[in-house]
């Protein structure tokens, strides 16, 4: 992820994306800046809003979207809220007996760093479409992002 290839590619994508259109919320302009800005945490259904440092409304939304969806293949592997990224338990699935369940943890983090960089939900499909490029430039791994 810290390779020059990954940084160049990520920074180029941010430049291509341009203004996130999120009403002036500041954005980061480089992978380095996003890495500096993010706090990575492991998600647990038992965490409270206070423990997560998010509003109760955001906590409820995260619970609705992620709790009890852990085993679904198409569920997001992480959620980012105000610069904090919560990695879902399945983001750590690797070397499983069912290889198609394996996740690309580095790739998942790079995906979330686009959100940290200022690109919110409106950008999800565009960021999602970069999964192959993330793997070619950054994680050099297979697995689900
Ligand atoms: Zn996303």
Structure description:
The protein contains seven helices and three strands. It is mainly alpha-helical and about 140 residues long. The protein has one domain. A three-stranded mixed beta sheet has the order 1-3-2. The longest helix is centred in the first third of the chain and has 14 residues, at about 5-15. The structure holds zinc ion (ZN). Zinc ion (ZN) binds near residues 111, 115, 124 and 127.
Number of strands: 3
- The percent range for strand residues is 5-15%
* Mean pLDDT across every amino acid position: 88
- SSE class: mainly alpha
- Placed side by side, the strands forming the largest sheet appear as 1-3-2
Low-confidence stretches: none
Tertiary shape: globular
Q: What is the rounded distance between the termini?
A: 14 Å
* Strand and helix order: HHEHHEEHHH
Query: Largest beta sheet, briefly?
Result: 3 strands, mixed
Bound molecules: zinc ion
Q: Helix amount, in percent?
A: 40-55%
Question: Taking Cα atoms only, what radius of gyration do you get, to the nearest Å?
Answer: 15 Å
Provide the domain count.
1
Number of helices: 7
How are the secondary structure elements laid out?
Layout: H1 4-17, H2 31-37, E1 39-42, H3 49-52, H4 56-66, E2 78-81, E3 84-87, H5 105-116, H6 124-128, H7 131-139
Helix pairs in contact: 1-7, 5-7
The protein binds zinc ion.
């Amino acid at each position: 992820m810290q390779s020059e290839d990954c940084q160049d590619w990520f920074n180029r994508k941010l430049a291509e994306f341009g203004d996130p259109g999120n009403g002036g919320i500041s954005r980061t302009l480089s992978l380095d800046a996003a890495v500096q800005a993010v706090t990575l945490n492991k998600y647990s259904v038992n965490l409270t809003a206070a423990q997560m440092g998010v509003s109760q409304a955001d906590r409820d939304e995260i619970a609705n979207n992620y709790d009890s969806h852990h085993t679904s293949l198409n569920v997001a592997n992480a959620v980012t809220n105000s610069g904090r990224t919560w990695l879902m338990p399945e983001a750590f699935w690797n070397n499983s007996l069912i290889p198609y369940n394996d996740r690309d943890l580095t790739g998942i983090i790079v995906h979330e760093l686009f959100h940290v960089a200022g690109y919110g939900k409106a950008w999800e499909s565009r960021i999602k479409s970069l999964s192959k490029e993330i793997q070619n430039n950054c994680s050099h791994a297979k697995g689900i992002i």
